[in-house]
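Supplementary material to the annual report.
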Amino acid sequence: MSEIYVIEGHAQNWREALKMTGTKLYEEGCVVEEFWEKCAEREAEYPTGLTEFCPVAIPHASNEYVLRQAICALRLDEPVMFRSMADWDQDIEVRYVLNLALLDDSEHIKIVTRVIRSLKDPQFLKKMDDCNEEELKVLLDEYFLTEKLDDDNA
Amino acid sequence: MAVKVMIACGSGIATSAYAAEEIQKIAKGIGVDIDVHKERIQNVMANAADFDICFVTSNFKQDVGTKLVRVDGLISGINEDAVIEDVKAALLEAAAKYNAD
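Predicted assembly:
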């Protein structure tokens, strides 16, 4: 069973944002200690910033550093720059970092699919913005961990 | 005969997992059978020869000697319709090659 953790805070840059989310996942026993550094290495090589319309990054690391499947969502008080997944030469402002601690099982495919489907909907971002920290956890649980967005239910 | 497709992203487990689901759906929609293999970007070059098409979720653009199709639009939603058309065209072209053999 996967878990979602929501935190809020300030980061100087993308590395610090990865450290905040990775540390939370480590404290919760979901990943090994070096997970965030592995995310940072991966991010430097294969960035995960989405688009100028979707100020979200979806960093992750190889499943060998993951103990229990989880997502740590960080809402930033001020945006930090991530490089764009689609165009590595482009920087985009990111306000939400969804750090994905994924195992390689059938559930992870469902979770990734739900995360990406949600983020492609501008209404979903608006909903995220309108939530306080507690409500955000409820929203993400509903969209990412239930079958709401799955094909059979769409 | 199924068309052999590789779907590659940075880790081989996140965006490629999503793209694989979407490409399976597109293939089904146009009646093309595919065998999907998920891969890390750094292994595309070494393994491309074993596949009919390599789909990548980033702007990786080295010449790998195999048809290479960018599908980051499936993830970002930007120009998604055009990307879906590219995927269809590539799948149909590869399928036609098998039918001709």
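Chain B has a mean pLDDT of 93.
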